[in-house]
Every structure is written in C-alpha cells, then in structure tokens.
Amino acid sequence: MSGWGIDAAIPAGWDARLYRRVPGDAMEQTFPVLHAANFPLPANRGDFGSGAVEVMGPTHLFVSLLEYGDASVSTPLFAKYGMPKRLSPQDFRPDQLQRPIPGQLGVQRFFTDSGRAFCLYAVLGSYAARLMLIGRLNAALAGITLTAIGGVG
Amino acid sequence: MAAVVVVEAVAIALLTLLVAGLLRSHAEMLRALHRLGVDVAVGEDQQTGHAGPASHGHAPRLLSIGDRPGGQRGGQAAADISGVTVQGEAIQVGMAPAEQPTLVAFLSSGCGTCGPLWQAMSDAMTSGLFKEGLRVVVVTRSPEEESVSALRSMMPKGALVVLSSQAWADYSVPGSPYFAYVAAGSSIVQGEGTGRSWEQVADLLSRAEADATPAGAGGGGRQREAHVDAELMAAGVWPGHRSLYPKGLPGEQRGQQRS
User: Fold this and answer.
1) B114 CB-near residues (< 8 Å, 6+ apart)
2) Fewest C-beta in 10 Å: which of A76, A118, B52, B185?
3) Does residue B133 sit at the A interface (CB-CB below 8 Å)?
4) Residue A135's closest chain B neighbor by CA?
C-alpha cells in the first residue's frame, strides 16, 4: 500500500491501515499514520495502537509509523537520520510501552528520513516469543520506503 | 471358438486391470485433496444449482469446496484483501491464514438484491445470528467502479468495508451478492455461495462449518495445527527450537545415560 510518500509492502496475512485523520478545523494539521499487525486490527484505535495492543496475544506484534510536522525535523529528538530497519531484542523493554501491559515489550524510535520527521513504535506480544516476533517485524520494516513529498498539511 | 473365448478372457482381464488402476488413482487423488483440507463429500442437493446472483431465482446455497460454477475445482486460496476504505485510507485485511473465522461479503451499491443486506447488516451482526468472534469483511468493487457516496449512505457505522476490484478477481466472484467463508487458521475458502438475507447466509455458514470439521474432531487439521503452533510459540518454543528435535525417545535416552 502507498500514500503520502509512504510505500509499504505488507507481509502476507497481516492487517494494515494507512490513513490521515481529517483535520478538526482549518488550523489543525494532520499527518499520515501507518499501522500494521499480524492480527486483525480493531476499528477503533489510537495512533499509538490503543485499542489494538489490549487484544494482542503472545504471538502478536503491532507496529505504528507516525509522521510529525516540518517543525520537528530540525529538533534534537528527531536528529537520528534514517528509518530503523533492523531492531534487536535489546531494543525492546516494558518501560517503552505507551501503556504497560503485562508480558508486552515495546520500542519507540524518533528519526528523520527524506526530510520528514517520524516516530516508529512497535509492540511485541510476549517476551518468550521475542526472537521470532522481532524477525517478522524486521522483515516488515524492510518493506517500508519513505520518500520526500512537497509538504504535509 | 476356443480362440474367441481366449480373446474375450484376455480382454476382460485387461479391462479389469484398467478399472482397478482407475479406482486406485481416484483413491490417491481423494487422499491428496483431503490432505489439502478439501472436502469433496458433496451432498446430492448441492449437485445442481449455481452460485450466481440470487436474483436469478435459484435457491441460495453454500457450495462445498470442489463444487464451483463452471466445473470442479478445489478450495481456492483465501487471498489477503487490499484496497481502500470509503474514507480513502489504504487497507489490507490479512486472510492467509485468517486469525479468526471470516465471512467475506461481496456486495455493491447498485445491486437490488444487495439493498436488504446492507439495510439489515447492523442488526444481523449484533443479533446473535452469527457466532461470536466472526469477522465480517464487506468488499465492493474499487472506487472507479462503485459509487462511494452511495456506499457511505448505505454502509452501517463501524462496518469493515473495503473497495477492491482486485479482491473480486482473487475470489473469482461471479456477481453480487456473494459470500465466502474462511475458518480460523485456514488459508483456503471453506465455503462460498449466495443468499438473499443474512438468515440464509447464517444457515449456509453453519453448514459450511459443519462440512469443514471432521466428524468427531474438535476442529480441522489446519486449525488444530495453527492452535498448537500458537501455544508452542507462547511458551518460547519457536521453529527450530532444540526441544523439537530430541536425540531419541525418552526410554532410549535414559538407557543410554545409564550405560
């Protein structure tokens, strides 16, 4: 699937959504969000996966790629260049979850790619299956390509 | 006279060998189809009829695998459904294998028979007509071939609707309305057909589920395999784990250790 300068080859059997919320008013800016998971994604989800992570099982994984505005590109938080494509078990910790859920591990990475600021957030369903899940996650990340676009908003 | 008798005897013997060979070949084909999860035990009442639009007047029915319009075929692969939503979001619904039992409903905004199905969809999904946990995915043709504005007004709130002509091609949909059922953990379509109402679809679904479940078993082989895989991986036993490749049977190992 592709849109808004995000091109993603979603693994077979996965659910995925690529969306951009409708601005609430003329002053609001919204940005594209990519969600991908190896389980059915609930209809009602937050950008960081709330609504989905609560229904994850031990062999499930969820990943969210969220873009931030142009103003974030030059900030220290997004100083690292290039989207992470190979995560390791050491990258995942329970304290990196948006909301702690027993058994789950998470990772959050802020970066700039193609002149755009993004956050990559991934959640693993269990510590025991982390090696297998991280392998599948890295395979999915390898299929994501970001390209520069004229401007968001 | 004797020569005629001999010739006839030889001919009969050859024909007997031919028939025996054909029967054996047929048995092997049935075994191979069974290993693939295909149920070819089609009932007599499913031998006729077709899966075209219900408006053609044929009794709605769900076909067992191997019985599709236009000739015999095995259960087709349940392809992932990729397209867009009415809000313009790109979407992929994973089906290979399906994490939960899934009913794919191929509908359109312009089909007269589909109208009652759209209208009654909300009530049907919440009335207990279908088993809890059933995922319903509605698939229409792509935006270029559909009226997106009409879909927005027809589709119930919260319904998972994907606009994808590619999915229609992947599932060889002959027309709308059309339904395909994929059991949890399966990567093939267990049953497909058409119906004028959700009650008819639910009835056909229950028959497809019954056809897909071996007698006396708790579930199909593929479902059981997927369930076991999930439990093993949750316990940390992933593919290639050393515990999956013991050096010998427990008794043999103990004997080796004593000696």
Assistant:
1) B107, B108, B176, B177
2) A76
3) no
4) B238
Tally of domains in chain A: 1
**Shared domain check, B227 and B116:** no
Q: Give dist(CA A16, CA B98) in Å, integer.
A: 14
State yes or no: ipTM above 0.85: yes
Cβ <8 Å between B89 and A14:
no
Count how many Cα atoms sit within 13 Å of the Cα of residue B45 in the half-sphere of its side chain.
Answer: 7
The whole-number pLDDT of residue B213 equals 62
Residues 21-60 of A with CB under 8 A from B: 22, 38-40, 43, 57-59
Nearest CB to B80 within list A13, A18, A129: A13
Domain containing A117: what range?
A: 2-146
Contact assignment for A131 to B238 by CB distance below 8 Å: yes
pTM over 0.80: no
| Interface contact A15, partner B, CB < 8 A | yes
| A78-122 tens-digit pLDDT | 999 999 999 999 999 999 998 889 999 999 999 999 999 999 999
Phi, psi of A152 (to 5 degrees): -105, 165
Sign of the four-CA dihedral B44, B46, B50, B56:
positive
Residue B245 placed within a domain = yes
Residue A152 lies in a domain: no
B71/chain A closest Cα distance in angstroms: 29
pLDDT at B215: 54
